[in-house]
Amino acid sequence: MSELRLDELRGEEVVYAVDRQERTFLPAAEHCPLCPTRPGGEPTEIPFPSFQIAVFENRFPAFAAPGGAAEVVVYSDAHTGSLGTLSRERARALMWVWRQRYEELGGREDVEYVYIFENRGTEVGVTLHHPHGQIYGYPFLPPVPAKELAADVRLGGCAVCELSRRELAEGRRVVYENEGAVVYVPYAGRWAYEAHVAMRSHRPSLVACEGRELHDLADALQALVRGYDGLFERPFPYVMAVHQAPTGRTGGSGDVLENEGPARARAGARGASEMEGSSSPSPPPSGHLHVEFYPPLRTAHKLKYLAGSEQGAGTFIADTLPEESAEQLRAAISRASTGEAGRGDGG
Amino acid sequence: MTAPPPNPPLPHRDPARGAEGLPGGDEPHGLRQAPDRFRATADRPATGDGGGQSGEGERYGEVELERHRKEDGRALILYEWRP
User: Which residues pair with B77 in a beta bridge?
Assistant: First the structure.
C-alpha cells in the first residue's frame, strides 16, 4: 500500500510505493509478463493464448483502491512493436479502450484524475519492452494538470484551444494535422522534439469525442510516433502524457485554484494584456484533451538530462529551437507516411 | 476566444442516473465488481491474432470488452475491435 506525504515546501504530494522496488525489471523476451500465456508455457499476466488489447490492475501499483488506481494497458499480444506499428484499426480500438477506462475510473469516488501515459525506451525508465502503456487514477489532482487549469484562467478561456489557434495561425511549428487533431512542437516546448497532439474542437476528455475524432486522434498519434522513429532511424524514446479534464471535485469547479494567490493574480493580469480585445468572461477551468510527448533525445545519440536548473530551479534550458525541431519532425513524418502507406502489421 | 463548455458529467456521478448508474454495483469500484469469470474462460481456444472469442461481451463504442479476474483477485479486461 502506498503512502502519500505532502511536501510542504513545494506544496506537492509525494507517493511512496515501496513495493514497486521489487517489480519485474527488463526480463528476457521468453519471460515477458505481458505476452499471452501460451499452451504449456510460462504463466503470464494475461492467462489467454491470444488477445487484442488487455487491461489489468498493476501487480506493483503506485495507487490502489480505495486510494486510486494503477492499470497496465497492453496494446497487442505481439512482444515487439510500438504504438506506431499497430494496425490502424488496433490504434483506433486503443482510443476506445482509453475512453472506457477514463469513464470507468473517473466514475470512482477515490479517483480525482485519470492519467493515461506511456513510457517508451529504457532512456525513460521502461522496465518491460512489450508494447504497453499505463493508467494512474490519482486520488488527488497532480500539479501539471492543475497548472493547465490555471492556464485556462490566465488566458481567459481554454488554454489549449487558444494555443492551438496560435500554432495553426503561425504554422511554423505544426508538423501534422487532420480533420480532428493537430500536432505541433509547442512555442515554448522544453524537450528538443516535444510535440503536442491536440483536438481541434474543444473536447475536455475522450468521453466528449465523437467516434471520428477518436479515429483522427489515433491517426495523429501514429503519424507522430512513426515520424519520431524515422527521425534518427531508431526507436524513439519518449514519455507520452494524455491530459484530460479532472474527474473529481476539482474538475470544472475552480476550487483547485483557490490557493494560487499572488501568482494567479499576476498571471491573470498578463493574460488580460495578451488577450486584449477578448470579451469572453473567464469560464471555469475544465481541461482540453491533448497528448504531450516528451522525448529525451536531443540528437541521435545525446540525451537531455534534467540537471541543476531544471531540478533545482524549475527552469528548463533547451538546446534547440522548436521551429528547427518542427522542420525536421515534419519532414520525418512526411517520409514515414509515404513509407507506411498501405502498411499494417495487424499488431 | 470562446468559453469552453463544461465537462460532461461522468455516468457514475450523473445525478440523473444515480450513484449506481453503471455496472459496478454498490461499491464505488466498478472494476472490482466485475464477475469472476477467469476460471470459466481461461482455457478458451486460441484463434490467431486478435484472440477472437465467442463469449458474451460488454459493448463499449467500437470495442467489446470481457471482464475477468486473475487468480490473485486483480481485474483483467480483454478488448476486441468491433466497429
Answer: A55, B67
A40–B contact, CB cutoff 8 A: no
pTM score, two decimals? 0.81
Residues in chain A within 8 Å Cβ distance of B13: 107
Asked if A159 is an interface residue toward chain B (Cβ–Cβ < 8 A), one would say no
pLDDT band at B35 (very low <50, low <70, confident <90, very high): very low
Whether cis (ω within 30° of 0) applies to the bond prior to A281 is no
Q: Residue B32 and residue A65: Cβ atoms within 8 Å?
A: yes
What's the rounded Cα separation, in Å, for the pair A256 and A252?
9
Question: Residue A330 CB: number of other CB atoms within 10 A?
Answer: 19
For chain A, what are the domain ranges? 24-299+317-340
Q: Which CATH superfamily is domain A24-299+317-340 in?
A: HIT-like (3.30.428.10)
> B13 in contact with A at a CB cutoff of 8 Å?
yes
Chain-chain contact of A99 with B61 (C-beta, under 8 angstroms): yes
| Cα–Cα distance measured from residue A292 to residue A274, given in angstroms and rounded to the nearest whole number | 24
Measured in whole angstroms, how far is the alpha carbon of residue A25 from the centre of its chain? 23
Cβ atoms of A48 and B51 closer than 8 Å? yes
Q: What confidence score (pLDDT) does residue A259 get?
A: 33
Task: Report how far residue A182's alpha carbon sits from residue A191's, in angstroms, rounded to the nearest whole number.
Answer: 19
ipTM: 0.87
> Cα–Cα distance between A52 and A29 in angstroms, integer?
19
Query: To 10 degrees, what angle do helices A261-274 and A143-155 make?
Result: 40
